[in-house]
Every structure is written in C-alpha cells, then in structure tokens.
Design goal:
This is Vq motif-containing protein 1. The chain is 42% helix and 0% strand. The chain is mostly helical. The termini are far apart.
Length: 62
C-alpha cells in the first residue's frame, strides 16, 4: 500500500422482496419480514391464512 491509513470500508448488503398486501394485513407483513411477533385481531384469521400462504409462495420462489 501507499502508506495511507484509511478506516476499513463497511459493506452493507440489502436484500429486497416485492410484496403485495392489503391495508388490513400490512402490519402483519412487516412484522413477518422483520421477525417481530405479529398479532392478528380477532376475526382476521382468514386474512392471516391468506397472508401466510402468500409469504410461503414468495419464499418458494427465491
């Protein structure tokens, strides 16, 4: 090297995913992607099952 004392370079890799959802499921999708615990309001179980199926299909494609 030429004698320069530089700080090490930090490399950040960001993985992106295309996700389609509705307003009712948005919070649950974000929590699923970030690893946070999600709670589904009572009566929203059907939406949650649909979301889970969509997420599983997305994971299978990658």
């Amino acid at each position: 090297m030429s004698g320069c004392n530089r700080d090490p370079v930090k490399v950040v890799i960001i993985n992106t995913h295309y996700v389609e959802t509705d307003a009712m499921s948005f919070k649950s999708v974000v929590q699923n992607l970030t690893g946070k615990d999600s709670t589904v309001a009572e009566g929203k179980e059907k939406d949650s099952k649909i979301l889970k199926e969509r997420m599983e299909r997305m994971a299978a494609k990658t």
